[in-house]
Amino acid sequence: MSQIEIFKSALDEEIESYAYGTHPLELYEPIRYLMHLQGKRLRPMLTLLAAGMFTEDWKHALKPAHAVEVFHNFTLMHDDIMDNAPLRRGSPTVHAKWNTNTAILSGDVMLVQAYELFLNSPEGLLPKILKRFNRTAAEVCEGQQLDMNFETRQEVSIPEYIEMIRLKTSVLLGYSLELGAILGGAEDTSIRSLYEAGVNMGLGFQLKDDLLDVYGDPERFGKQVGGDILANKKTYLYLKALDKADEDTRQELLVHFGKPAADARAKVEAVTAIYNRLGIRDITEELIRSYFEKALKAIEGLPVEEDRKVHLLGFAEYLMNRDK
Fold this sequence. Notes:
Blueprint (H helix, E strand, L loop, with lengths): L2 H14 L8 H11 L6 H13 L7 H22 L3 E2 L2 E2 L1 H4 L2 H19 L7 H27 L5 H26 L4 H28 L2 H4 L5 H4 L5 H9 L2 H11 L6 H15 L1 H21 L5 H16 L3
Helix pairs in contact: 1-3, 1-4, 2-6, 3-4, 3-8, 3-16, 4-6, 4-8, 7-8, 8-9, 9-15, 12-13, 15-16
């Protein structure tokens, strides 16, 4: 088995075997349901990959890595309520399968469970780990609020959008790598470098999601292509198109995003055609590459043996080139 496969196997066993709680069943069953839907689990993988660069004893990072995944899924459970989303990873969302009150309460318990799992960190490192986690968790909530604010705002700038996704998505990837470095006994300069690598990776990751929503293969992407267009979401592609368009094209795009779609397929095709005319796909791909290149450069600069960097570098390149 490769190192990545070893980490994945250990992580899957850790998550699948964890009980979360038993009574009342209605409180804990939704947690098990969501945690077993088999998401990418990239955040805890990043924690293990970072820890493994600095120590052979990476298994003590399993439960803190698990904590990051529980927190991430907690945010998804509550985000799905706010978005009134019917599906998560191709299955019914918790509030759709049970009800909204259950989803709120089960999500609350997930946050408590995340702290419980963090308590398995080495005692001397716990204050630093929790202090950085608390800041990160607050930033994720700040990003979600900005995202909701943007739904009702007429004008959103590209820097505002990048800051929103930095908070909502990227800081947790940054923390995942930072956590692994802390648990691995890395020096502060390496911890900071890995945090910045994770943030840049997260920015590229979210922009890749934006791109795949328009240009992805629906068989590979796993959800409806054009969903952001149909939801009138102000993604980077949309904002960049507004920025580059002449007045006629700008008005055409605003019309498409200003009303519900009478014909969903026609709306997606029309907006995609505008993006194609303006070269938005190439521009977005270049920006994605630039963020991942910053991440790769930060990892390459770490003061550890080259063979210890290869697994994280390979994982970052996989995220950059993914098609789902």
